[in-house]
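User: Write out your own:

AI:
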Amino acid sequence: MSTPKDRRQATADRQLLARRWRLRWAAAVAGLCASVALSGCSALSGLGIGPTPTPVPPLYRYDTAIATAEAGADREAQAAAYYARAGAHFEQGDYAAAIEDYGRAIELDPANARAHNDRALAHQALGQFEQALADFDAATRIDPAYTRAYKNRVALLEVTGGDPERLAADYGRLAELEPAAAAAHRYRQGVVLHGLRDFAAARAAYDAALAADPQHVDALYERALLSYAEGRLQDAIADLDRAIRLSPRAANAYYARALARSARGDRSGALDDLTAALALDPDNPEALLARAAIALDAGDREQAAADLARLELLAPDDQLAAAADALRQKLRAP
């Protein structure tokens, strides 16, 4: 059993050990701080020891790089520093600040095609489409092989629907720059030219697409429509035959071939194609109307009446409704 003297001695021993531990801890901390004195003991911040680090602004390193570059006489280095900060502004969604820094980079290095391209994207993000197009123009003028700038301009023109001539030219240029994707680019070029009613150029683009990829179903289909419009019915049917072999569930191809067959006087073949189209797309109003018309001409009044009744349930547009009314009057005639 311990005596009061023993208890007092034990307490003194514990106090001595505690003082020794505190001294050792203080010495260890002092030594560690000394080794990182220039960094304000930042190595201890994770332990909650030492001063709290000063927060660094998000663009601090970019601002510092610009300041360093500005202190020298190297305009290329200055342009690179502004371009880098512009990219940081863009990533943060501060497009106005990005435009300002890209502009400074361009002033310092006017031949910087990437700065023009990236500033165009910032303008586009703000809905400033004319300025964006001007910068894309500059980028492709500086670097005629700048594929990304062409793609970005194509994307903008597709969205805005502006300047289809330039859009067609850009698809042509992309076909040259990206041979592996030439079929897709030539096809899109053909569609744009077709819309411009430049039929000869559109056919040349579709031909180029199919030369690059003979199994490009969309190019076959669009070239067939062009041939049909030009009265080249056999050419249209040949392309649609190929399209259907490649894509047997393409209802629109059956419908288009039905029109071409009907125009050639092949009523039976046209009815077969329309039936195939409607099996794949039962609510196709154009196919219903066409089958009703051909069936009526063939004397199949029952089929014609059924198709017109189905068409009426679909609430067709005014043009189709007027054509359907004309067929109903013909159907009611003795």
Remarks:
- Residues 16-47 have pLDDT under 50 and may be disordered.
- The chain is about 75% helix and 0% strand.
